[in-house]
Specification:
The chain is of the alpha/beta class and 271 residues long. The protein contains ten helices and eight strands. The protein has helices spanning 42-48, 74-87, 100-111, 133-140, 144-149, 154-162, 169-180, 187-191, 209-218, 253-264, and strands at 8-12, 15-22, 27-31, 53-58, 93-98, 116-122, 197-204, 236-245. The longest helix has 14 residues, at 74-87. It is globular and about 60 Å long.
Length: 271
């Protein structure tokens, strides 16, 4: 796998934001899930970088990117991503986000539509009740005390290995709990998205399958029989991976093949 300038920092909106650049070609931004970082995408990144220039970003308080004195906000993190793209000189880029990163990717296209060529939302809803209720309850219970029980876990160890301030683990958990405690419904904004968008979930995901279908329909998919010639196919795509959970979807070869096919397809005509 070709690697270019891997492991760089840039000052963005008060953050010392870490990102890596791998491969050559059209730019593709990867946005990780909560408590994670670039390492979450190790397998997928290698495959995607064979054909595209992959920019793997670590968001506020995650991975190598130190926290700053501001709450975690999906909207502000989306603005950070947009600022990074502008700093790198890209007129636009493809964006793939997983879980928390999927929500940031959605806010990026909502707030900065001109910067997003194609969008891939993996295991993330467009409104808070898209999560199964029991999973949402667990996520909203995150706080410093809960985070202390995770010390020594693989997730905690991965954080400690790269975080500029490893002692901020409990602060990160508190901020994530506060973020996930907020209700939201971006349905109207999603219906206005012009970028070709693919939604990917597992059939055993933390996202309700019915919500993924609703999300798909908001984007214009699932409205009609596309016809023998396929002329009725929308610009949206829905991929539901069998025997796949929220926790192993990034390792699925089906995810890699679905994403690659979506990225390789020509840009559709406006509908």
């Amino acid at each position: 796998m070709a690697t270019l300038n891997a492991g760089k920092y840039v000052s963005i909106n008060g953050l010392n934001m870490y990102y890596e650049v791998h491969g050559v070609g059209k730019p593709l931004v990867l946005l990780h899930g909560a408590f994670g970082g670039v390492a979450m995408f190790e397998q997928l990144l290698q495959q995607l970088a064979e054909k595209q220039q992959v920019i793997a970003v670590e968001l506020q308080a995650h991975g190598h990117t130190a926290d700053i004195d501001r709450p975690l906000s999906l909207e502000v993190m989306a603005d950070d991503v947009a600022a990074l793209l502008k700093h790198l000189g890209f007129a636009n880029a493809d964006i793939l986000g997983y879980s928390l990163g999927g929500s940031v990717a959605l806010q990026t296209v909502i707030r900065h539509p001109e910067l997003v060529r194609k969008l891939m939302v993996v295991s993330a809803p467009c409104k808070s009740d898209g999560w199964y209720t029991e999973r949402l309850t667990v996520m909203r219970s995150m706080n410093a005390e809960v985070a202390k029980t995770w010390i020594g876990s693989p997730m905690h160890q991965a954080y400690v290995n790269v975080a500029p301030n490893p002692g901020n683990w409990t602060t990160l958990a508190t901020k994530i709990g506060q973020l996930l405690g907020q209700d939201y419904d971006w349905s109207k904004d999603v219906a206005a998205i012009k970028s070709p968008t693919m939604i990917v979930i597992g059939d055993a995901d933390s996202i309700r399958t019915a919500h993924a279908v609703e999300f798909f329909e908001l984007l214009g998919g699932g409205k009609m029989d596309a016809g023998k010639d396929g002329s009725g196919i929308s610009n949206a795509r829905l991929s539901i991976l069998p025997a796949t959970t929220h926790y192993n979807i990034l390792l699925s070869p089906m995810l890699a093949s679905s994403v690659a096919a979506f990225l390789d397809a020509p840009m559709p005509e406006a509908k």
